[in-house]
Structures are given as structure tokens and as C-alpha cells.
Amino acid sequence: MNQAISSIVFVEKDLDSVKSILEFLSTKFKAVYTACNAQEALSAYKKHQPSIVLTNLELPNTDGLSLIEQIKKQDAHARIIVYSSVTDASTIVKTLELGVVGYLFKPFNKNKFEQLIDKINTELASQHQKVEKEKERINHEQQYRSLFETAPIGIVIINKAGQIIDANKQLIKILRTDNHFIKGDNIFEFTPFIRSGFTAAFMLSIEKNAVITRQYEIITKQRDRIHISYQIAPIVVQGQTTIYQAIVEDISMRKEAEYQINYQKSLLDSVLNNIPDLISYKDSEGKYLGVNKAFAEFVGKKASEINGKMAQDIFNEATVEHFIKNDNRTLENKRKSKYKGHLKNKDGQNSYFETIKAPFYINQKGLLGTLAVSRDITANISHINALKYSEERY
């Protein structure tokens, strides 16, 4: 017999006459409590909260039916088995109406009793499984609600008609609206959804049955300019798309950071491109990370064609060897150096340059590579040579 039912209260007016039953019960239950009348039975039930009650209907001072009623008042879920010689149909029906789980006729039949307990155990196991599943469902629901409500992004669940099934508080905060979304409300009736482009993206997701991602800039009721990102995705339930989940995120800070980065880059490019000297910066392996307009024009390539390339992809072997030598010296010494040398431009013409090369640092990464600034001093050298020639001649 299954041991899910572990304790029993046995109610019998003459316990001495049922010693064999008591011995049998003691082999089947961890705890067996006895009572000779209704008062003792009620006291034992209240004290021990047994798994089951086995009671005779013929009891002193009161009948078994009254006992059953009183136990049921204490505990509506009490499991009671009647063990009696009473065969009257109306009495049996009355016990069943009171909610007993079984009725056994005397003499006590061990096999029928065990069958009844096994049946009860099976029902209890099934009930326990249902309870555990319900607990698990509630736990998952609580976890979902906790994540749903504390998420730093807006979340809204919508059906095909645009009715809101669920929405978290962060959505209201992101859209800067005083409206509180209520289940059943329609997104097509809320100005913040319409103004932010959400409804248009939602309709597109329905039309294409696909994930739609969009970014919009909107002006809020408070006249704030904010950037909103939407990702609307169809959710398939039992093979059909019936609801849609939308993730709504305020990306204003990200957009501002991107703007500042682009602004700083644009400002740096503008400064570098207006300098007539050849400027380039490379990583420690010698790959070009960037060049200015003057450098790109000198070699006859676009800056985008130079970035990521090595010097040997652009200059002749002798020049490359000269570059590598000076790059390595700058990286090893970690200080700037100055040197002069010839470079050929895109037309094959030689020019004489003075180059200052310095180590190139980034705060978070340390030494990144080298920065070179080369100035064309061909005209200066020509003037100096002409002057020397004139002095020597005259």
C-alpha cells in the first residue's frame, strides 16, 4: 500500500474486540491513534491532524453521522472511511452526502480496505501533482511579473486588433505620457503611440508577419525631443499568430553619445583635412588607422582605400623599409623623432619631406601605434641650394 497516507484515527467503541484490525493498521501506517467515542475522536483529529479517519457508526452517546458532521466542520477536506454493520440504504446515502471517501461493511475486509486506500492515494498523488503544477505556474507568473514590471525597457503585448493585453509601467515613462494603459485599451486611440510611429510599425508587422525594428524621433507633451526604438514581433500560439510583443526603448542617451562621437570625429577630420601636411596614424603592426586629405591626395587614393592597409601596399620597397625602421624606433623609444627623406607622389614625382613621428596613445588601451606628420620641404631645399650656389658663384 502506498504510504502517502501516513496516519490514521481509528474510532471504535470496543477496541479490545478489534485488536487484529489495530495490528493490521499498525503495519500500514506510521501512526495509529484510537478513540472510543466521538469526543475522543474529535480531540484526536484536532491534535494529530491524521491523513484519514476510520470510524464505526455505532458509537456511545452519539452516532457516527454526527461525528462525521463535526469533523467536516473542523476540516472540510477530511478523509473519512466508514466501517459499520449498518446496511440501511438511507444511512449509507447520508454518509456519502456528508463526503465520506468510502463505506466498508463488517466484518473488516483487509483487501477492500487496501484497495480503497490505494485509490485515495492515487487521487492524492494526482491532486498533489496539480497543486505542484499550480505552484509552479504561480511561481513562473510571479517571476514573469517581476521581470515584466522591473524591466528597464517598455514592454507591451497587443492582439491583432490593437487591444492591449498587457503593458508595463516603464512604457508610460518612456513615452512621457500621463495615460495609464489598461487591458483592453486600443493603441490606435492613444496619441503617444500614433505620434511615435508605433502604430505604423505595428501594422507593418501584421502585414509582413515579421519582426519590425524602427527608430523615431518624437517631441513629447513636455516638449522634450527623444529618440525611441521599437521592436515589434509576432508571437505564434498553437500555430497561429494571435498576439504581438513590442519592446520599446528610450535610446536618447545612445543617440546623443553617437552624435557627440560623430561630431568629434567630424571636427577632427575637418581640422586634419585643412592641414596641408601629410598626416597619418598607424597601429603597432603598421596598419593605417587613418590619414588626412593631403596624404590621400598625395598617394592618389581615397582615405577609405588606405585605412587597414600596410605601407607596402602604397609605397615602394625602399620607402617602406625606411618607414618600418622609423616606426620601430618610435615604438621602442616611446618618444617622438624627426627625420628627412624622399617620397614619390601619385605621378611618380619625388618630393623631399621632413617627418615628425610620435607614439600614439589611447587612454584605455595605452600605446596604440604611431602618428606621423610630414611636411614638404622641397621648395625650401631648392631655395637653400640656390642660395649656396649663388654664394659660391659670386
Account of the protein in words:
With 394 residues, the protein is an alpha/beta fold. It has 13 helices and 15 strands. The chain has helices at 19-28, 38-48, 64-74, 89-98, 110-150, 169-175, 191-195, 198-208, 252-273, 293-299, 303-306, 317-333, 378-393, and strands at 7-11, 31-35, 52-55, 80-84, 102-105, 154-159, 164-167, 212-219, 225-237, 240-250, 278-283, 288-291, 337-344, 350-362, 366-376. A 5-stranded parallel β-sheet has the order 2-1-3-4-5, with helices on both faces. Helix 2 packs parallel to helix 3 (64-74) and helix 3 (64-74) packs parallel to helix 4.
Attribute tags:
single chain, 394 residues, alpha/beta, five-stranded parallel β-sheet, five-stranded antiparallel β-sheet, 27% strand, elongated
Describe the structure concisely.
This protein is α/β, with parallel strands linked by helices and 394 residues long. It is 44% helix and 27% strand.
Largest sheet, order of strands side by side?
A: 2-1-3-4-5
Strand content: 25-35%
Low-pLDDT stretches: none
Helices and strands, in order, run as EHEHEHEHEHEEHHHEEEHEEHHHEEEH
How many angstroms does the end-to-end distance come to? 130 Å
Q: What's the total number of strands? A: 15
Helix content: 40-55%
Overall geometry comes to elongated
Rg, Cα atoms, Å: 45 Å
Largest sheet: 5 strands, parallel
Give the overall average pLDDT. Answer: 88
* Number of distinct helices: 13
Structural class: alpha/beta
